Amino acid sequence: MTTIAFTGHRGLPRHTSDRVRRALRAVLAGRDRPLVGLSCLAEGADQLFAREVLRAGGDLDVVVPAAGYRESLTRAARAGYDDLVSLARHVHRMPFERPEPVAFMAASVFMLERADELFAVWDGLPARGFGGTADVVSHAREREMRVLVLWPPGSRRDG
Length: 159
Prior knowledge:
With 159 residues, the protein is an alpha/beta fold. The longest helix is centred in the N-terminal third of the chain and has 16 residues, at 14-29. Helix 1 (14-29) runs parallel beside helix 2 and helix 5 runs parallel beside helix 6. Helix content is 42%, strand content 20%. It is globular. The termini are far apart. It has 6 helices and 6 strands. It has a 6-stranded parallel sheet, sandwiched between helices.
């Protein structure tokens, strides 16, 4: 079984989301089965990854960083979050009360401890706050975990 943890940017414009979706689809098609994807289901790349894992016939395990996490998502992302949680094989809930950076990083470390590799939709820039994509990639590399960075040509972030 191949278990893939995921980290990625929020705030992806539609053209970048489309590129990322195609890249995820292509790379997941070449992975061994059975396949398990681990995600916190944040808006943006996390939800794209989760949908592509399911589309590829894999299982989804969700890590909820904190109580109130769902409410911290944008209204637009909540429906996707709810749908994906309902499709998950397992939902792991971290013991944090508030969705804040320390909880996000702890959830990422939890995923890395259970994964064979990390997929990162990452522009290569420093994290905008503790627990961001760059921090997760750095932690995985410190553990000597295989990291696949996906940032298709022409991609960009909002904000």
